[in-house]
Amino acid sequence: MKHATPLLLCLGLAVTAAAQNPAPQHSAELRADHAYQKDAAQGPEALRAFLVGFPKGADLHVHLSGAVYAETFLREAAEDGACIDPDALAIVKAPCTGKQVPATELSGNLSASAQVLYDKLVDALSMRSFVSSASWSGHDQFFATFGRVSGLKKGHAAEWVDEVASRSAAQNQQYLELMQTPPFSHAIAAAQMLGWPAGEPDFANLREQMLASGLREDIATGREEMRSAEAGRRQLEHCASPQAAPACQVQVRFIYQILRGNPPQQVFAQTLLGFETIAAAMAAHDDTFVGINFVMPEDGYLSMRDYTLQMRMLDYLHSVYPQVPITLHAGELAGDLVPPEGMRFHIREAVELGHAQRIGHGVDVMHEDNASQLLKEMADRHVMVEVNLSSNEGILGVQGAAHPFPLYRAAHVPVALSTDDEGVSRIDITHEYVRAALDYKLSYNELKQLARTGMAHDFLPGTDLWASPDVFTTLTAACKADQPGSGKPSSNCKALLDQSQKAAAEWELERRFREFERRF
Questions:
Q1: Cα(355)–Cα(57) distance, rounded to whole angstroms?
Q2: Which candidate, 156, 424, 428, 508, has a CA 20 to 30 Å from the CA of 485?
Q3: CA nearest 384: which of 20, 6, 52?
Q4: What pLDDT sits at residue 134?
Q5: Which residues pair with 84 in a beta bridge?
Q6: Are 444 and 23 contacting, i.e. CB atoms less than 8 angstroms apart?
Q7: Residue 344 in contact with residue 373, Cβ under 8 Å?
Q8: What is the dihedral of CA 64, 65, 71, 74, to 10 degrees?
Q9: What is the average pLDDT score of the chain?
Q10: In which band, very low, low, confident or very high, does the pLDDT at 53 lie, cut at 50, 70 and 90?
Q11: DSSP 326
Q12: Closest CA relative to residue 326, chosen from 490, 464, 212, 457
């Protein structure tokens, strides 16, 4: 990789932004732009006050359990009658033994000692107050938080979705794709029964055997669990009543999580189940699940050893289920987490073998073989990168000029901001917009570009509102004569909005921009 490549890419950044999202054109947008510049000059707090109401479109990279704040988990532990292990700083199942204490002791009026334990638990379940040491890194802390809530009972998903949707609504965000792992016990049984071949795997034969062993029996359970979570959160938000909460206006869809840190037979079985689940949902016109993703630390032993094998699994399954959208964690690597050769191919294989339409993180892109060619390929294919600035700093120690965010933008690769695990990071989506704006000196229209890009790359079904991918200057033919987001679209445009969930969501974002900018 030539050292001049990043500089040459950065020189094209202004041209890229101007071509895809022109300078403010009308008076309301100009006034909003001036207000933004004024608040940005005053620092992060003034800018946050401006951006909290800024329409942010979609958050496409959100782990549901990681988006929940520690305080919620502790409240639910008390409601469940769970226990607290004060040594492990974890929620564990009842009955309490040894030093374990009932979680109810951390609710109501706390004693001084209970308050100390409560504070330690909030720290243990998040990145709050965390300082890395030689033996415990931000990476270690971040991923350890998930195992510390394993003592909670099942059935809290509706409350979690409500929490995340309510937080999104308060920040003028309209759409969420939440990653969640549905039950897959039959898939595990099939995987254990069949094992994994010693030689070259015959994916087609493995698929047939796993389907014949009853793997599909998990489909109904998984779909029902997510439908129940969505129905439950809408009940909590009183969505069918005059007292409907603002969160009712937030659209929620789910991404099917695959656990990449497991043995290959289990990864293949769970991935097959995910594809089967989404294909069945599509056939039933049920868009509860809208895509597939692989999760767990990318630097884990099995994740690294089997990375190419897992991408080949996706390559085969994509050939069988080409209609199923794919987004992949790839390039969530930095520094000394893995040997240098481990950072040279993950993003490329995710795109070329894994058929990823979006890449989550993509932090080590400049370590890939022929990085400039890979960036061009991603731009040409319109593979979007889900950028998680706070998560990347907390887990990888990558921030500011060391982050490839400006390089992706300069190379015309579509990018959008996302939170990843806002509960663990103790952030929200507005925090990420403020951070991006200040760290990378973004203009008002460049922030609009980020929001529009997220909506354009969601996995909602239907035709795009815009005439050209990732160019937000001309509407598609049906709406070409319309003002984006206007209250009275033409008959042709309305027909498109009625039949395309994607176009309707993009139109709603434009409506919100118009409404936001009229305030100034």
A1: 25
A2: 428
A3: 20
A4: 87
A5: 91, 101
A6: no
A7: no
A8: 140
A9: 94
A10: very high
A11: B
A12: 457
Q: Are 218 and 273 in contact (CB under 8 A)?
A: yes
Rounded to whole angstroms, the maximal C-alpha distance in the chain is: 72
Buried b (16+ CB within 10 A) or exposed e, 168-204: bbebbbbbbbbbbbbebebbbbbbeebeeeeeebebe
Please check whether residue 251 is in contact with residue 295, taking contact to mean a CB–CB distance below 8 angstroms: no
**Dihedral over alpha carbons 295, 297, 299, 303 (to 10 degrees):** -40
Q: Give me the pLDDT at residue 409, please.
A: 98
| Eight-class DSSP state of 5 | H
Copy the structure tokens of residue 244: 């409907």
Closest CA to 62 of 329, 403, 378: 329
pLDDT number for residue 325: 98
Mind listing the pLDDT tens digit for each residue in 358-378?
Answer: 999 999 999 999 999 999 999
Per cent of the chain over pLDDT 90 is 94
Find the angle CA(505)-CA(509)-CA(512) to the nearest 5 degrees: 135
Q: What are phi and psi of 331, to 5 degrees?
A: 75, 20
DSSP for 410-433 reads HTT--EEE--BSHHHHT--HHHHH
Q: Per-residue pLDDT for 2 more than 80?
A: no
Burial of 73 (0-12, 13-18, 19+ CB in 10 A): buried
Q: What is the pLDDT of residues 144-159, one digit of tens each?
A: 999 999 999 999 999 9
How many CA atoms are closer than 13 Å to the CA of 143, on its beta-carbon side?
A: 15
**What per-residue confidence (pLDDT) applies to 336?**
87
Structure tokens at 354: 């894994």
* Residue 56 CA to its chain's centroid (Å): 14
Residue-wise pLDDT for 386-430, tens only, equals 999 999 999 999 999 999 999 999 999 999 999 999 999 999 999
Per-residue tokens: 128: 């709050």
Q: Which long-range contacts (CB under 8 A, 24 or more apart) does 195-199 make?
A: 195/265, 196/263, 196/264, 196/265
Amino acid at 5: T
pLDDT band at 20 (very low <50, low <70, confident <90, very high): low
108: left (phi over 0), alpha (psi -120 to 50) or beta: left
DSSP 236-281: HTTTTSTT--GGGGSEEEEEEEEETTS-HHHHHHHHHHHHHHHHHH
Query: For residues 516 and 312, what is the distance between their CA atoms, to the nearest angstrom?
Result: 46
The b-or-e profile of 49-69 (16+ CB within 10 A means b, else e) is: ebbbebbbbbbbbbbbbbbbb
Q: Which residues contact 321 (CB under 8 A, 6 or more apart)?
A: 275, 276, 278, 279
The residue written with tokens 């695990």 in the block is: 421
